[in-house]
């Protein structure tokens, strides 16, 4: 289970959140909502250890996520605004690298290409893919990762109806397997697993 | 990481602000007295050097400046390391406040070295190992200051420049000894170093007085600059608005 | 995934990228050749002048060529989000940084060493000088890649960082330049230069063991 205690973060001279606490238990999701600039992305980056909060800590099973990064193993699969794909390499090269990074073999990602509609594009350079296709390709990385905590920043952006349905079904499956998801979303979404909502930007 | 309690207390900005405001005059006034005494003794009382004549007297500015230029870089790097390890905001303020002072003393050491060089070497600039090292040190200071101010997020600039200072301080001895080796393979003129040759006690004690005076002056100046930095950085904090209120009402 | 496997994967990816962007790879080498051929035109084509200046000029040209490609070392990784993917996991970030520096050396440093003998001959360096130039470059350029990677990691998030990068990195590279260039010159005069060579090797070992940690800390600051 994931819990955060007393998170305070300033950006420049603006306070994004102060003494923020939340806890998410296995099998459920936390949805982050709030206007643009309310700190959703920043909070996700704090959970990933990319941004350091002024005070407070994020813990995984009671252990400090940031400090014990090396010992905890692959806890987080992060899908941010940027795809994390190299635009000058082919889709296959990118996914092979991603799979190797999280200790998976080639077959893990190849099975996912068909349902995501990417099977015909594996030899293409990523920069030739459309924004939606790149988004789907980035999603593959999350799907093959053994990480129990999915952190997704606007996972539905740039996707068509079929793509959205696929992402939501994948999140549901992950939660049903006892995983945790942290999603920053704008639109109303329907998950069958239990979910809580955290509204940002109201207190500041 | 563990940090003693008194350090935590000192590191709290309002506490530091009070202490340094009280301490700064106690450093600056003795500094002025020592510097005045040292200059009088060095420029009037001390005898002229039999080889260099009155030209040697520039060491009374040059040596304290050169000494402070390296001391301040070390202090700056130490403060930056404290900031990086213990995430102490005050330490970053100290590093930020120290850098321009250090750069000025480095510049002063370079200029006085050049002025001394004219009568001694017959030229304003000689690639003397000490002057060359000072020049590189000036570049390191400039790098620190430019990197610190080139981020939109001030705390990011503090951390990046702090890391650079730590890398620089590890490199500094290597650079220094490389420069010495470099100059040793080009045998230069006979008077090589900016030292007072065969220094006597009458020449030495004003120098020691001035080194002490310059150091106290730096310490006082640093405290005042850190105060200004702290005010700037904490301008939204309650204790700052409370301190500033009488001034605002009065003006 | 093992640390060694991680470093190998990052190295292979960066080399594949370099292979795809051939122009970026070629430009430092061309820069090296062009700058080196400017000096005889600007100074003098006389044999003894070129012999005297050759070691220093070629070393400075090599240093600047390597600096040229540093700016792009982490910029793309930061913009496309692949660096944050490497930074969130349990992977060792210093190993990633070491692999990045190694890739930079293979792409921007090694070609210079291959071209250097040719340029040294145009400066009329004697055989001992040509050998010494190649040896000093071989031992010195890895340190330049490593020191450069700290500067590149620190400035990766800064816009218009070219001049700033030079200001940060060049003073740190000074010892390598001194021992590399002066060592070459001494060898050209027929002296034994094992001293400078040992020192350059020591710098490389020291840099390889310390610098990746500094670069990792620096890239975390840039990611923040």
How do the strands of the widest beta sheet of chain A line up side by side? Answer: 6-7-8-3-9
- Topology pattern of chain C, helix = H, strand = E: HHHHHHHHH
Separation of termini of chain A? 27 Å
Major β-sheet annotation of chain A = 5 strands, parallel
Summarize the largest interface: chains and residue counts. A-C, 33 and 25 residues
- Our count of domains of chain A comes out at 2
Number of helices of chain A: 6
- By CATH, the topology of the largest domain in chain A is Rossmann fold
In short:
The complex is a heterotrimer of chains A (204), B (251) and C (224). By secondary structure, chain B is mainly alpha-helical.
Structure description:
The complex is a heterotrimer of chains A (204), B (251) and C (224). Chain A is α/β, with parallel strands linked by helices and 204 residues long. Chain A has helices at residues 40-47, 69-72, 91-101, 106-116, 131-144, 161-176; strands spanning 2-11, 14-24, 29-33, 55-60, 63-64, 76-79, 149-153, 180-184, 195-199. In chain A, strand 7, helix 6 and strand 8 form a beta-alpha-beta unit. The radius of gyration of chain A is 17 Å and the shape is globular. The model of chain A has no long low-confidence stretch (mean pLDDT 87). Chain B is mostly helical. Chain B has one domain. Helices cover 79% and strands 0% of the residues of chain B. The radius of gyration of chain B is 21 Å and the shape is globular. The two termini of chain C are 25 Å apart. Chain C has helices spanning 3-20, 22-42, 47-70, 75-79, 82-88, 93-122, 127-155, 162-188, 194-223. Chain C is elongated and about 55 Å long. Chains in contact: A-B, A-C, B-C. The A-C interface holds A 48-52, 69-76, 78, 80-89, 93, 97-98, 100-103, 125, 141 and C 1, 5-6, 9, 13, 16-17, 20-21, 76, 79-82, 84-92, 223-224.
Topology record:
The complex is a heterotrimer of chains A (204), B (251) and C (224).
Chain A: E1 2-11, E2 14-24, E3 29-33, H1 40-47, E4 55-60, E5 63-64, H2 69-72, E6 76-79, H3 91-101, H4 106-116, H5 131-144, E7 149-153, H6 161-176, E8 180-184, E9 195-199
Parallel strand pairs in A: 3-8, 3-9, 6-7, 7-8
Antiparallel strand pairs in A: 1-2, 1-4, 4-5
Chain B: H1 5-11, H2 13-45, H3 59-86, H4 89-121, H5 129-149, H6 154-184, H7 201-233, H8 238-250
Helix pairs in contact in B: 2-7, 3-4, 3-6, 3-7, 4-5, 4-7, 5-6
Chain C: H1 3-20, H2 22-42, H3 47-70, H4 75-79, H5 82-88, H6 93-122, H7 127-155, H8 162-188, H9 194-223
Helix pairs in contact in C: 1-6, 2-3, 2-6, 3-6, 3-7, 3-8, 6-7, 6-9, 7-8, 7-9, 8-9
């Amino acid at each position: 289970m994931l819990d955060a205690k007393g998170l305070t973060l300033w950006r420049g001279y603006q306070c994004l959140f102060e003494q923020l606490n939340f806890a998410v238990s296995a099998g459920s999701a936390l949805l982050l909502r709030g206007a643009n600039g309310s700190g959703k992305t920043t909070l996700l980056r704090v959970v990933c250890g990319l941004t350091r909060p002024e005070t407070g800590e994020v813990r995984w099973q009671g252990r400090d996520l940031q400090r014990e990064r090396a010992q905890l193993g692959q806890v987080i699969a992060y899908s941010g605004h940027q795809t994390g794909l190299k635009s000058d390499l082919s889709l296959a090269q990118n996914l092979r690298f991603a799979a190797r990074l999280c200790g998976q073999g080639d077959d893990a990602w190849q099975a996912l290409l068909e349902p995501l509609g990417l099977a015909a594009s594996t030899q293409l350079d990523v920069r030739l893919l459309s924004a939606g296709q790149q988004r789907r390709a980035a999603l593959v990385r999350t799907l093959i990762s053994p990480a129990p905590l999915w952190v997704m920043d606007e996972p539905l952006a740039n996707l068509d109806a079929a793509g959205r349905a696929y992402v939501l079904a994948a999140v549901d499956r992950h939660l049903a397997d006892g995983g945790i998801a942290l999603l920053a979303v704008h639109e109303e979404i329907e998950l069958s697993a239990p979910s809580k909502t955290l509204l940002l930007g109201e207190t500041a | 990481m563990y940090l003693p309690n008194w350090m935590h207390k000192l590191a709290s900005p309002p506490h530091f602000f009070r202490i340094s405001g009280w301490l700064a005059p106690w450093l600056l006034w003795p500094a002025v007295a020592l510097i005045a005494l040292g200059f009088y003794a060095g420029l009037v009382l001390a005898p002229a050097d039999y080889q260099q004549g009155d030209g040697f007297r520039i060491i009374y500015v040059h040596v304290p400046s050169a000494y402070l230029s390296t001391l301040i870089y070390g202090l700056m790097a130490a403060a930056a390391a404290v900031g990086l390890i213990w995430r102490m905001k005050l330490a970053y303020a100290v590093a930020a406040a120290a850098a321009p002072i250090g750069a000025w003393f480095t510049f002063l050491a370079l200029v006085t070295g050049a002025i001394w060089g004219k009568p001694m070497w017959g030229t304003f600039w000689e690639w003397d190992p000490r002057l060359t090292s000072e020049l590189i040190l000036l570049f390191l200071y400039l790098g620190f200051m430019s990197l610190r101010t080139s981020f939109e997020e001030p705390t990011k600039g503090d951390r990046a420049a702090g890391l650079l200072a730590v890398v620089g301080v590890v490199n500094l001895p290597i650079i220094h000894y490389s420069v010495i080796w470099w100059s040793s393979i080009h045998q230069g003129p006979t008077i090589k170093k900016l030292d007072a040759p065969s220094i006597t006690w009458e020449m030495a004690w004003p120098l020691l007085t001035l080194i002490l005076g310059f150091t106290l002056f730096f310490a006082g100046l640093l405290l005042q600059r850190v105060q200004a930095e702290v005010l700037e950085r904490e301008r939204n904090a309650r204790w700052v608005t409370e301190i500033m209120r009488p001034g605002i009402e009065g003006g | 995934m093992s640390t060694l496997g991680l470093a190998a994967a990052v190295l292979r990816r960066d080399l594949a990228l370099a292979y795809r962007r051939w122009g970026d790879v070629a430009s430092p080498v061309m820069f090296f050749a062009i700058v080196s051929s400017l000096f005889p035109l600007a100074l003098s084509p006389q044999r003894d002048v070129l012999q005297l200046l050759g070691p220093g000029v070629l070393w400075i040209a090599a240093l600047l060529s390597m600096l040229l490609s540093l700016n792009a070392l982490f910029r793309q990784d930061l913009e496309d989000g692949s660096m944050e993917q490497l930074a969130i996991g349990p992977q060792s970030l210093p190993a990633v940084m070491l692999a990045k520096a190694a890739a930079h050396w293979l792409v921007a440093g090694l070609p210079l060493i291959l071209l250097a003998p040719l340029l040294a001959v145009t400066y009329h360096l004697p055989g001992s000088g040509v050998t010494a130039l190649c040896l000093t470059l071989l031992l010195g350029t890895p340190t330049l890649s490593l020191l450069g990677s700290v500067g590149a990691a620190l400035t990766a998030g800064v816009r218009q960082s070219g001049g700033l990068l030079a200001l940060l990195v060049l003073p740190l590279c000074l010892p390598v330049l001194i021992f590399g260039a002066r060592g070459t010159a001494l060898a050209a005069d027929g002296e034994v230069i094992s001293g400078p060579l040992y020192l350059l090797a020591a710098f490389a070992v020291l840099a390889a063991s310390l610098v990746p940690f500094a670069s990792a800390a620096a890239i975390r600051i840039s990611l923040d």
